[in-house]
Specification:
- One of its GO terms (biological process) is glomerular filtration.
- Its main location: cytoplasm.
- By secondary structure, the chain is an alpha+beta fold.
- About 50% of the residues lie in helices and about 15% in strands.
- The chain is built from 28 helices and 18 strands.
- The strands form 4 sheets. The protein has a 7-stranded antiparallel beta sheet. A 7-stranded antiparallel beta sheet has the order 13-12-11-10-16-15-14. Strands 1-2 form a two-stranded antiparallel ribbon.
- A hairpin with a 4-residue loop joins strand 15 and strand 16.
- Helix 24 packs across helix 25 and helix 25 packs across helix 28.
């Protein structure tokens, strides 16, 4: 089969399959990485010489094989990115593309308005035999054509009929793209740039499905609405921008302008971290690629100076209002970069952006006539307690005093750990985020810092800084409006955390009404969806009213896209992912359950309310902490941990109803033994031990297990 593939490659003179490769493999690893490829011995020898001079000499400084592999991967990816920047500028050879377009039109006879985006030489596998030919990616179809030794293969698949699209590896194919449509599997391999090809296929498949479900967005987007405007270069840059905004939790409007491979000096570790500096209109971001999990976000509104550092190390130094300086080195074209950044900073230092994000608690003073916000005052963090907690101190019984003291002591120790972190790694939007930050989040954020850190990790702090006065205007405009959304909001207001004292008065209910109505006014496409009331209630316990609004924006529009609309497509997609993860990680459960839709029906509320609707409030907020730091991954992991914890009992269940009872009893038994909240607010502690045969499970242990 492979011989036939080679024969096909020889017969098709235009195919570009490289016969020479350089592989990287450390002695204790079974995996090798493809580092370079070449079409001739001379070309591959050039690559080898370059590696000897630029990479191999450096490897002796690393202690472990993992560090070596990370460094080599980072270096090669950096080169590819630099090379890729050039290819963005010059589109494919027009003459060659015209030739490909004529072939495409002649072979497939698709409608005239079908726009060819790009095409690649590759192999299509029929059983164990590869057929060399051409893969064509157009706005609505994936097409393949091969005509060799008298045999013709023609394949056309509509993007919206694809049920699975993934990069895979198996014994025969080291790297291939697997496409499943109407239950039929198709494999394509031998691409020169498989990641680039896969990225474009993913984009086109996503757009095709979104066009079915989200016509309004497409009609408002000139590029997507008119397929003739879709280009390979446009799709690639859009995909990179989307990945960039999602990774750093930046406003959707940010587009990735430049990427520079470099090193960032990490003062608390006394070493340089190797990674990439990513620059957009309003942000300079860095993410490590050496396994140190270090990232930094520097909004240009915070920058007070950009300077050239030591020319020998090609250094760039960036100073911020928080009196922190970030030192980057080994930056290619560093002098040009300094000049560009200086221009950008002078353009962004307009008065509207001046806002102290170092302590985000002080940033919402201009909320609607301070609106007597009640629960918004719960989020004031200057006294290291939420006001709701203070107001409820009187409900403690004398015998609880000792218990309270130990919990308060633990809470103070948690705060102390965070304060040490802030001293070491910075405080506010430009802090260093590392593995240590994540470890502290997993332990549970202290009550006094929760609102501030939610704003920071969700990126809501940036939306708020860029839109001063926006929430006040929305509240005024939406006041008194009467729509289907406002009717639904009114109906659900008193069902939102009804047992919590904060929502047993008009003050709390009014704040909740204003936030939900303002959001429905801002985004009529979503308007209001059940579950938003529960989520917003919890946000209001820890954040001021305006902050809670921007947190809701971050959740609905960035972190959980398409969750809160009429079709809840986003939640259904993530549930399908969850089912797939159950098959992989908990196969015993999959074998036992006759119908996998059980998991979807039982877990929908976990996804829509981030476990708030099923867990006691004092435990649920720890889950929300992890969600704002890690995104939906935290919810998927916790879902798997819950099922694994209850595996034995679930395997003995005879029907779905019994399984639901098992899970409900488990959730009732989850406690937060370190929570400083008073008993009147806590839900878990009010349950008598006789009510459940489940031993108590601490939420911190459960979250830690889900991470491990």
């Amino acid at each position: 089969g492979l011989l036939v593939g080679t024969l096909d490659a020889v017969l098709d003179s235009t195919s570009k399959v490289a016969p020479f490769r350089i592989l990287h493999q450390t002695p204790d690893s079974q995996v090798y990485w493809s580092i370079a490829c070449g079409s001739s011995r001379e070309e591959i020898t050039e690559h080898w010489d370059w590696l000897e001079h630029n990479v191999m000499k450096t490897l002796s400084v690393f202690d472990s094989n993992e560090d070596i592999t990370s460094f080599v991967q980072g270096k090669i990816r950096g080169l590819i990115a630099e090379e890729g920047k050039g290819s963005f500028v010059k589109e494919e050879d027009p003459e060659k593309f015209r030739e490909g377009l004529m072939k495409f039109e002649k072979c497939f006879g698709l409608p005239e308005q079908e726009k060819l985006v790009t095409y690649y030489s590759c192999s299509y596998w029929k059983g164990r035999v590869p057929c060399q030919g051409w893969l064509y990616l157009s706005t609505n179809f994936l097409s393949f054509y091969s005509f060799l030794l008298g045999a013709e293969i023609k394949l056309t698949i509509s993007w919206d009929e694809i049920s699975k699209l993934e990069k895979t590896s198996n014994v025969i194919l080291t790297e291939s793209i697997h496409v499943c449509s109407h239950g039929e599997d198709h494999y394509f391999s031998m691409f020169l740039h498989i990641s680039e090809t896969f990225l474009l296929m993913e984009q086109l498949a996503n757009y095709a499905v979104r066009r079915l479900f989200d016509k309004e967005t497409f009609e408002n987007d000139p590029v997507l609405h008119d397929p003739l405007q879709i280009t390979k270069r446009g799709l690639e840059s859009r995909a990179h921008s989307e990945q960039f905004s999602a990774f750093f939790r930046l406003p959707k409007e940010e587009t990735l302008k430049e990427v520079h491979e470099c090193f960032l000096w990490v003062p608390f570790s006394h070493c340089n971290s190797h990674g990439k500096m990513c620059i957009s209109e309003n942000y300079i971001c860095f993410a490590s690629q050496d396994g140190s999990l270090c990232s930094v976000i520097i909004p240009l509104r915070e920058v007070v100076g950009v300077d050239k550092a030591d020319p020998a190390s090609r250094g760039v130094s960036i100073s911020t209002k928080g009196k922190t300086a970030f030192h980057f080195s080994e930056v290619r074209d560093f002098e040009q970069l300094v000049a560009k950044l200086r221009m950008k900073c002078s353009a962004t230092s307009s008065p509207q952006h001046v806002m102290n994000t170092e302590v985000s608690a002080s940033s919402a003073s201009d909320s609607p006539k301070d609106l007597d916000m009640g629960p918004s005052k719960m989020g004031q963090r200057d006294n290291s307690k939420t006001v709701s907690t203070e107001a409820l101190m009187t409900v403690y019984h004398p015998q609880d005093a000792e218990n309270l003291d130990s919990k308060m002591l633990k809470e103070k120790m948690k705060e102390q750990s965070w304060n040490i972190l802030f001293v070491e790694r910075g405080h506010g939007v430009s802090m260093f985020r590392t593995k240590k930050t994540r470890d502290l989040v997993v332990r549970g954020i202290p009550e006094a810092l929760r609102g501030e850190l939610w704003l920071l990790f969700s990126g809501a702090v940036n939306d708020m800084a860029s839109n001063p006065g926006y929430y006040t205007e929305l509240v005024e405009k939406s006041l008194g409006t009467c729509t289907l959304a406002t009717d639904e909001i009114e109906r659900d207001l008193r069902r939102s955390l009804p047992e919590h004292p904060a929502f047993q008065s008009d003050t709390g209910i009014s704040a909740l009404r204003r936030v939900l109505t303002a959001y429905a006014y801002r985004n009529p496409q979503i308007g209001y969806c059940q579950a938003m009331n529960i989520l917003t209630s919890v946000l209001l316990l820890y954040a001021k009213e305006e902050e809670a609004f921007w947190l809701l924006v971050a959740v609905c529009e960035r972190m959980l896209p398409d969750y809160f609309n009429r079709r809840i497509i986003g939640a259904l997609v993530d549930q399908a992912v969850f089912e797939e993860l159950i098959r992989v990680h908990l196969p015993q459960l999959t074998d036992h359950m006759t119908d996998m839709t059980f998991f979807s029906s039982v877990s929908l509320s976990w996804f829509l309310t981030l476990f708030i609707s099923v867990l006691p409030i004092e435990s649920a907020v720890n889950v929300v902490d992890c969600f704002f730091y890690d995104g939906i991954k935290a919810i998927l992991q916790l879902g798997l941990a819950v099922l694994e914890y209850n595996m034995e009992k679930l395997l003995t269940c005879k029907d779905d109803a019994e399984a639901v009872t098992v899970l409900n009893r488990f959730f009732e038994s989850v406690t937060n033994k370190d929570s400083p909240l008073p008993p009147a607010v806590q839900q878990g502690s009010n349950l008598s031990d006789t009510k459940s045969d489940h031993p108590k499970v601490d939420i911190t242990d459960l979250i830690r297990e889900s991470n491990e």
